[in-house]
Write the structure tokens for this entry.
Amino acid sequence: MTPLTICLIDDEEGFVTTLAERLELRGHHPVVALTGEEGLSCIAEHAPHIVVLDLRMPGMGGMETLRRIRTTWPDLPVVMLSGHGGEAEIKSCLHLGAKAYLKKPTHIDTLLEVIHTALQAQRTTP
């Protein structure tokens, strides 16, 4: 399996640090941002294969971060991973171009499966 650069954008520092460690143990290269603004800089600097984005964060929330990602990097796959969000928010994220929406907590293998599915779909989209 090819190592992936994965940008993790989440304000829960303990959660995102643990997630990054688990991804590293599986051979990937996670880069962490704790705010939406940091996330946009992280994407510009590291050119990740995919973004894993929290919905509710102080300052620029996940929905606005997703809008800005779509504006600047329209083909970059984004997976939403949040402990919050109802049906309307999930639909909005998917409408804005998120490839998937997972609820926290989710198993690392489930997240990686969704990441690989999103990347595969990206490769096969004309």
The two ends are 24 Å apart (CA to CA). The first strand starts at residue 5 and ends at 9. The chain has a mean pLDDT of 94. Residues 10-124 form a domain with the Rossmann fold fold (CATH 3.40.50.2300).
